[in-house]
Amino acid sequence: MHFRILGRRLWALAMAGAFASQMALADTKPQTDGKPVALAEALNLTLERNPTLATFPYRLRAADADRLQAALRPQPTLTLEAENLAGKAPADGVNGAELTLALSQVIELGGKRRERMAVASLARDDSHLAYEQARLDILGEAVSRYILLATLQEQVELAQRSLALTRQSESAARQRVRAGAAPQADLTRLTLASQQADIALQRAQVERDAASQQLAALWGEADVVDLVPVTALRPLPELPTLQAINAQLDQAPDLMRLANEARLQEAQMRLAKANGRRDVEITLGARHDRLTDDNTLVAGLSIPLNLRNPNRGNIARAQAQLAESEAQLNARRIELISALQALYRNLSLVREELALIEDSALPLARQLYRDIEKGYRVGRYSLLDLTSAQQEQIALEQQAIELAARFHQHRNEIERLTGLSLSLSGEQEIAQ
Fold first, then answer.
1. Looking at the DSSP assignment, which residues form a beta bridge with residue 289?
2. Distance of alpha carbon 366 from alpha carbon 372, whole angstroms
3. Rg of the Cα trace of the chain?
4. I need a labelling partner for 71 at 20 to 30 A (CA). Which of 42, 201, 303, 368 fits?
5. Quick one: which of 73, 97, 109 has its CA closest to 301?
6. Nearest Cα to Cα of residue 96 among 289, 349, 359
7. Do the domain assignments include residue 353?
8. Among 135, 215, 126, residue whose Cα is nearest residue 419
9. In terms of C-beta distances under 8 Å and separation of at least 24 residues, what long-range contacts does 54-58 make, across chains too?
10. Residues 150-202: pLDDT tens digits?
């Protein structure tokens, strides 16, 4: 189990490194005002300073103390007995007393100490797995918040482009109105549209600042509103096959912990059976007879009669708990397989839809807007044609941003559920 724990630690670190490449491009975005932060940096800060993770070392120390306690053997007992006190002369008072000094030792049978240590070790492993799972959950949350920040940053940039396009159209309308080729209403409508675009930009900036605060809160900082992501959402990374993911499903945090709980319940059942065996107590001492001044050795053996197993109820309960743990493990495995299939199908659909928008629809929409904008200046198209073309282009760009964000969120959820890095899996698959 310790080798599994070590492997788990290394896997968590590998995931952190893989997350840094999962969004496909560090430092590819143009620098803007604010504090640039890459995904890898955000993950490192989260692992180092997250307040929730800071509580787990104390739990691990408590588990170590339980394991130490479980390894302790029964302590010997020293007894002093005085018999034949206050008799008749010449044995009156303490003159006729028989004094016995004895040392007793309980010898545990049935492997009780071994089973106690096994239970304590597995309980510590469970605490360690809980810690590793918490680390992965925090990493997953950090990735999710970074994706949100990157998404909102692109929303801000899209709002800036939308404002620029609206002002460009407003300028064209102003020229036409001055030339008497268009009514004043066209300019008024575009002026209102420009103002609305400016408000939308301010709203997007506020939402982006809130996402910056949420991300920085993971490493214990407050009121940090100027984080600027330098890891972009696109292009989308490649994925390993669903079969490759399912083949390594045993590394899923939930399954690893449930499997350890099943082993823990099995160890507790063995301990319950061992506790059903009575222990033997051996006594060895010396007796002094004051009346005769004789010294003799005393030896004893205490063996409780075990006519019926006194722990049969605990054994039955441990057996039921073991069966329950195994059933939970099987049920969770089925749930994970179903969830992964659904997420993976969604990833494939999102990739295809985004590719269609970026490769076909969006270039056409941009070309359409350029053509109509030029034609509007010379009176070939109406204001409705111009605004419709602009809205179509902005809507497609907005849809592309949302699809890329959805892809990364689904991908992050797969990594959180399985505990493995899709980037590393893909590289290993190619290497084979």
1. 98, 294
2. 10
3. 37
4. 303
5. 109
6. 289
7. yes
8. 135
9. 56/127, 56/130, 56/131, 56/134
10. 999 999 999 999 999 999 888 888 888 888 888 899 889 989 999 999 999 99
Cα(161)–Cα(354) distance, rounded to whole angstroms?
20
The sheet with strand 77-83 has its strands ordered as: 77-83, 98-107, 280-289, 294-302
Asked if 181 and 128 count as a contact pair (C-beta separation under 8 A), the reply is no
Instruction: Tell me the average pLDDT across 313-324.
Output: 88
Kindly state the tokens that stand for 328.
Answer: 């939970």
Mean pLDDT score of the chain, rounded to an integer?
Answer: 84
- Residue 177 falls within a domain, yes or no? yes
In a domain, 97, yes or no: no
Residues making up the chain, counted from first to last = 432
Beta carbons of 316 and 308 less than 8 angstroms apart: no
Domain with residue 323: its CATH number is 1.20.1600.10
DSSP label of 82? E
Q: Please work out, in degrees rounded to the nearest 5, the angle formed at the alpha carbon of residue 412 by the alpha carbons of 406 and 415.
A: 145
Query: For the segment 97-124, what is each residue's pLDDT rounded down to a tens digit?
Result: 788 899 999 988 888 888 989 999 998 8
Report the C-alpha gap between 103 and 321 in whole angstroms: 40
Cβ–Cβ under 8 Å, residues 47 and 16: yes
Domain range spanning residue 180? 2-86+109-431
Q: At a CB cut-off of 8 Å and minimum separation 6, what does 16 contact?
A: 40, 43, 44, 47, 139
Select from 196, 194, 197, 189 the least CA-distant residue to 158: 197
Cα 174 to Cα 185, 197, 344, 374, 377, distances in angstroms? 11, 18, 51, 14, 10
pLDDT by residue (tens digit) across 263-283?
888 898 888 888 888 888 899
Q: Which residues, 6+ apart, have CB-to-CB distance to 94 below 8 Å? A: 82, 85, 290
Q: Domain count for the chain, please give it.
A: 1
